[in-house]
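DATA SHEET
Item: assembly model
Revision: 1
Owner: S.N.
Input lines:
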Amino acid sequence: MSAVEDVVTEAPAVEAVPKRAMTLGYGTSLVMLGLLIVAPMFVKNFIIFQLTMLLIYGLAVLALNILTGGSGQFSLGQSAFYAVGAYTSAILMEHVGMNYALTLPIAGIVCFGFGFLFGQPALRLSGVYLALATFALATAMPQLLKLGYFEHWTGGVQGLVVTKPDAPFGLPMSQDMWLYYFTLVVTIAIYIFSVNLLRSRSGRAFMAIRDNEIAASAMGIDVALYKTLAFGVSAGITGVAGGLGAITVQFVAPDGYTISLAINLFLGMVVGGVGWLPGSIVGSAFIIFVPNIAEGISKGLSGAVFGILLFLVIFLVPHGARQVAIVAQQLIGKLKKN
Amino acid sequence: MELFTNQVLAGIATGAIYACMALAVVMIYQAIDHLNFAQGEMAMFSTFVCWQLMQWGVPYWGAFLITLVFSFAGGIAIERLLFKPLAKAPILTNVAGFIALYAIINSVAGLIWDFTIKQFPTPFGSSPFLGSQLISTHQAGMIGVTLMLLVLLFVFFRFTRMGLAMRAAASLPESARLVGINTSWMIALGWGMAAAIGAIAGMLIAPVVFLEPNMMLGVLIYGFAAAVLGGLTSPLGAVVGGFLVGVFENLVGTYIPGVGNELKLPIALALIVTVLVVNPAGLFGRPIVKRV
């Protein structure tokens, strides 16, 4: 074989999703929002906690969706960014005594920096290579967190306990409910930011890179900048989610952020539909509630149920929840005509 | 000096395992251009099968052979059932498929054999090899089995019709089909062989890391590091990479203070990222040039 390989015309790594198809219409969005606001008023505290986690994982899946569905880059290492966010919040709250709400933007910025830096070497990688590097990052993260040097700050293997915040201004609601609404506000803000990001100049640049990197660079897009930017934004959002997660679970420990978390988030994205932002919440619901159901069937089987469902999704509905939503929309359209 | 020699030899011994894993990864990468993230779990499952056979009273080498046949058939079955239909799908779908396979195998192994750590016997014993204190017989056995495997593979790919057909199918599928090679089955065969090679790696490393469902994660990451270092397109590179990574891991662990067992995985991460950034084609791989 000669040193230079002949033409390699590859199909894009991720199927192209048109920009319009990435979001929901206003009507549907408002209905969803209404449901999310009303939901916790009728359920027990534990379910409110689960709903909060639903929003938090939703954010993390959304972040991955921006990276993969938007700019066409893979990451099997989102758990690492989630962990950095969680630890940043926890350390700032417990060692510095900062207000929990203020730690979130800091967690976001720290993770943005971390993601941006990791995006630098990742620049030269695409497809499977990137998946590989991020996979290694996710497996290495728990060991880094356990490291003796940082033990004073991170608590080593033991982890850190985080105090749960009370509702401010003497509002008559439980801690869980307050935390839910707090998370909801953050989630909505980030969702709106993401939608606008993908509609902006930068978003179009991401998508151009996703669909054809070389053509994008020929159009004058700074490929290196936008690819690392996508990594940074995605890591930043994941970091905020991680911070919220730390506050909600009240505990951070290295073994909470293993490769299985990264797999779950990836799975959530595939189930929700790659590149469809509202699908993130569907994917998140999947990764939170399916393990419970699976554990109910047989202890320790959740991995197998996950895997099998993932294969079913790949084979039957490769576009995930987006495809289901489109089919449902068409059905409703037909019913209206009749 | 003795410490140095000792560490290098021990590194070569674990490197032999990484070489096997890397070889398995490269075989599938050659065939379908995807990294098999479930390779380690497949190897782990095979090792458990071997352990189970021995629990039932099958002698070591009998269990070893049955496991190889089982893994070979299992690898082919996985390809036929799950990955053949995905051949034309985007990379993302394939990565998702491998991740799903990883989760399924890990969870099923945990369900059948639970997560307690089990002893795995070695057929070579663990006394000092040839009376020297430098290396144990098991380590020597690991190196020996790997080298034998390499020779066998080399002979297979170089001198048999089947090996030639597999090489043809991997390098130019279209032309291979035109001369009458069933490329689809060649891919399945590659999967079967990769699964069997992985099983050998699993059975050899199990006495060292002990048998449990998560035992191969670290080994797999090092196998990936080895494959990347050697170049993902080169089986020879994978093997050389495996030995280099094994020695590197041991030397770093011995001579750089603060890097003990707990930093094993971050070192592999650093290695992968460095190689991919500095020289993505690896030591022996072909650089790939893309056009619009």
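QC remark: The radius of gyration of chain A is 20 Å.
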